[in-house]
C-alpha cells in the first residue's frame, strides 16, 4: 500500500527535527533513507529549504575531520539538495561563495588546516558538481529516489531503461535534470527515425494505466514514482 501523507507540527519544531537528523547523519552507516526523509520534509515544507542549506554550509565549513565520514555525508546531502531545490537568492549567493572557497582558482596550501582547500579533494569535487547542478535545477515534483541518491553520492548518472515497440529495450544515461523530451530525442536518433514524419513521446506505464510523459517532465521524477 502507498504510504499516507506525512503529518507535521510547527515549522519551528520541524526545523529542530531536521537539525537533529543532520546530527544523526554524521554517524549513520546507511545515510540514504535519512537523506531522503530530510529531502521529503523540505519538499513538503518549502520554508525549511533555506534553513537546511544554511545548516549544511555551516557543517561543511572547517569541519573537525575534513574528508571524514560525517563531512562527506554532509557534502552528499548538499549535492542531493542542489539537484532538488533552489534556495532563495540571498542564500544562493551565500552558497555559491561557500562553494567557490572550496575550489580556489590556484592550488593553495592547507590554509586553516583543512584539506578542502585542495582542488583534488573529494569536497572540491562535490563543490564543482553542486555549482553545475545549481545552474540547471528548476524544482522537482518528487524527491530523488533511493537509487538516485546513491548515484548522486558518487556524482554519477542513472541508467534508465526505455522499452521501444519493435525494438530492443534501450538504456539511456540520465541526470537529475534530464527531461522526457531529451530522452525521446536521443532514442529517435539511435533508432534512425530522425527523418520520420511521426511524433514520438515517452509513456509511463503502471498496472492501472498508461499515460504520456510531458515533454518537460524530469525522468528522475518518473523513476521516483515507480519506486
Radius of gyration: 20 Å
Task: Please give the alpha-carbon distance between the first and last residues.
Answer: 12 Å
- Shape, principal axes of CA atoms: globular
- Please trace the helix and strand order, writing H or E for each element: HHHHHHHEEHEEH
Can you count the beta strands? Answer: 4
Widest sheet: strand order? Answer: 1-2
What amount of the residues lies in strands? 5-15%
Low-confidence stretches: 106-116
Number of domains: 2
Overall pLDDT: 88
Coarse structural class: mainly alpha
CATH superfamily of the largest domain: MyTH4 domain
* Helix count from the secondary structure assignment: 9
Given this structure, which CATH class of the largest domain is correct?
A: Mainly Alpha
How does this structure look, described?
InterPro entries: Actin_motor_Myosin, FERM_domain, MyTH4_dom, MyTH4_dom_sf, RA_dom. This is PKHH3 protein. This protein has 227 residues and is mainly alpha-helical. It folds into 2 domains: 11-109 and 119-153, MyTH4 domain (Serine Threonine Protein Phosphatase 5, Tetratricopeptide repeat), CATH 1.25.40.530; 158-226, Roll (Ubiquitin-like (UB roll)), CATH 3.10.20. Helix content is 48%, strand content 7%. The protein has 9 helices and 4 strands; from the N terminus they run H-H-H-H-H-H-H-E-E-H-E-E-H. The chain has helices at residues 11-25, 32-44, 48-59, 69-82, 89-102, 122-134, 146-153, 180-190, 219-226, and strands spanning 158-162, 170-174, 203-205, 210-212. Strands 1-2 form a two-stranded antiparallel ribbon. Strands 3-4 form a two-stranded antiparallel ribbon. Helix 1 (11-25) packs antiparallel against helix 2 and helix 4 (69-82) packs parallel to helix 6. The longest helix is centred in the first third of the chain and has 15 residues, at 11-25. The chain starts with 10 loop residues before the first helix and ends with a helix. Mean pLDDT is 88; it is low at 106-116.
Amino acid at each position: 500500500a502507498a504510504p499516507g501523507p506525512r503529518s507535521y507540527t510547527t515549522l519551528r519544531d520541524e526545523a529542530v527535527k531536521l537539525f537533529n537528523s543532520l546530527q544523526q547523519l554524521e554517524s549513520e552507516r546507511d545515510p540514504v533513507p535519512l537523506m531522503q526523509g530530510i529531502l521529503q520534509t523540505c519538499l513538503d515544507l518549502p520554508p525549511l529549504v533555506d534553513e537546511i542549506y544554511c545548516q549544511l554550509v555551516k557543517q561543511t565549513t572547517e569541519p573537525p575531520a575534513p574528508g571524514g565520514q560525517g563531512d562527506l555525508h554532509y557534502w552528499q546531502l548538499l549535492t542531493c539538495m542542489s539537484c532538488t531545490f533552489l534556495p532563495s537568492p540571498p542564500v544562493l549567493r551565500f552558497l555559491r561563495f561557500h562553494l567557490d572557497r572550496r575550489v580556489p582558482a590556484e592550488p593553495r596550501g592547507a590554509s586553516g588546516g583543512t584539506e578542502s582547500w585542495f582542488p583534488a579533494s573529494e569536497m572540491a569535487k562535490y563543490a564543482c558538481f553542486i555549482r553545475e547542478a545549481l545552474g540547471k535545477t528548476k524544482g522537482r515534483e518528487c524527491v530523488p529516489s533511493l537509487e538516485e541518491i546513491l548515484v548522486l553520492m558518487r556524482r554519477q548518472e542513472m541508467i534508465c531503461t526505455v522499452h521501444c515497440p519493435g525494438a530492443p529495450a534501450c538504456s539511456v544515461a540520465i541526470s537529475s535534470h534530464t527531461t522526457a523530451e531529451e530522452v525521446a530525442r536521443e532514442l529517435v536518433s539511435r533508432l534512425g527515425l530522425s527523418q520520420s514524419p511521426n511524433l514520438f513521446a515517452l509513456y509511463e506505464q503502471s498496472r492501472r494505466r498508461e499515460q504520456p510523459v510531458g515533454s518537460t517532465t524530469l525522468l528522475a521524477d518518473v523513476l521516483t514514482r515507480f519506486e
